[in-house]
Write a structure and sequence with these properties.
mainly beta; 353 residues; Beta-galactosidase, Chain A, domain 5; globular; 9-stranded antiparallel sheet; 4% helix
Length: 353
């Protein structure tokens, strides 16, 4: 593990970068601003390392123009309808930063704060523990929230992400990791030819503002059926109301099985045919937001001068369902005093062929 300065915030605080390397040379760098994973160097079938996540070479890019590249998002990942929710009979208003809805915790979510970091080491793994205190009233949310996120790179080529949080008042909590992947290499075209499997029999349809309708819909016979490996671009251009509303895929999938910390479920698998790189995602969370990079439009210049084309990266955000605080039928996201929010996601890299 190495540590170095990555830049300075406008208020003078230093942002540090931690680089984790395993025995096979797989290398992941994360910074204390936003808990952002700035790079993941992963071997292809010939053993050549390539960076498979979108991002920037300097802090300035993340401060100016980042669509949550690589960040921890919270307090509430994804959307809350009409930027409000009712809890214990009281209406709470949170920032409307996505039309009339609130997205990824508001205007200053966990992606835009400076986390404290401590390195950790264990047999077969190296990592960092990131901590942040979100005060009561932060972005309109009740309760002082103590959040902890651990990144652990293992010698069997997995990035383990563990989330914990406690509160002194009931509050919604939904944390996730928002890396944009391109297994062909960041900046190397779009991701439409990558083969995706999502282990979900149903998804949550959305309205015109990308808020779930409250229903669960079967993926059978729809462009959302990724139960067998399918190129991401195979059906993305179909005439379909849900695809039109999301401008592609921007939907929560209801994962099969009964995910828990003791029994992670296989959420997704991805294969890049050109490089042979594979990614498997396992999680304790009930949902997976698959986003096909629809709002990337060639206006962002990322690492090494790479222009990020339309659909130049995809996200696999393990999470609870969007708008759960306003959807009584969805699994609850309310954390109460005396409880501990815990979740785990594992990103496992490999090579095919």
């Amino acid at each position: 593990m190495t540590k170095q300065a990555f830049g300075t915030l406008p208020d003078g605080r230093t942002v540090d970068a931690y680089t984790l390397t395993n025995v096979h040379g797989l290398r992941i760098t994360a910074i204390t601003y936003g808990g952002i994973i700035t790079s993941m160097l992963v071997p292809d079938r010939s053993g050549k390392l390539g960076d498979v996540v979108l991002g920037f070479d300097s802090l300035a890019g993340y401060l100016k123009a980042s669509p949550y590249f690589g960040a921890i998002v919270g307090r509430y990942a994804n959307r809350i309808a009409n930027a409000r929710f009712t809890l214990n009979g009281k209406v709470y208003h949170v920032p409307a930063n996505d039309g009339r809805n609130s997205l990824h915790g508001g205007t200053v979510g966990f992606d835009k704060v400076l986390w404290d970091a401590q390195p950790i080491q264990a047999p077969g793994a190296v990592g960092i523990v990131l901590t942040h205190t979100s005060p009561a009233g932060d972005q309109g949310y009740p309760g002082t929230l103590q959040a902890k996120v651990t990144y652990r790179l293992t010698d069997d080529d997995a990035l383990e992400v563990d989330y914990e949080a406690t509160t002194d008042a009931a509050t919604p909590v939904n944390l996730t990791q928002h890396s944009y992947f391109n297994l062909g290499g960041e900046g190397h075209g779009d991701i439409l030819g990558e083969w995706l499997t999502i282990y979900a029999d149903s998804f949550t349809p959305i309205d015109s503002t990308l808020i779930p309708t409250g229903k669960l819909a079967s993926v059978t016979g729809t462009p959302f059926d990724f139960r067998t490996a399918t190129p991401i671009g195979a059906r993305i251009g179909y005439t379909n109301e849900q695809l039109a509303r999301g401008r592609g895929y921007d939907h929560n999938f209801v994962l099969n099985g009964k995910p828990s910390l003791d029994s992670l479920v296989h959420a997704a698998s991805v294969l890049d045919p050109g490089t042979g790189r594979t990614l498997d995602v396992w999680t304790s969370q009930p949902g997976l937001q698959f986003y096909s990079g629809n709002f990337l439009d060639g206006t962002i210049t990322g690492k090494a001068g790479h222009v990020y084309a339309h659909r130049g990266g995809f996200c696999l955000e393990t999470q609870h369902f969007p708008d759960s605080p306003n959807q009584p039928a969805f699994p609850s996201t309310i954390l109460k005093p005396g409880e501990t929010y815990r979740a785990r996601t594992v990103f496992r890299f490999g090579v095919h062929g």
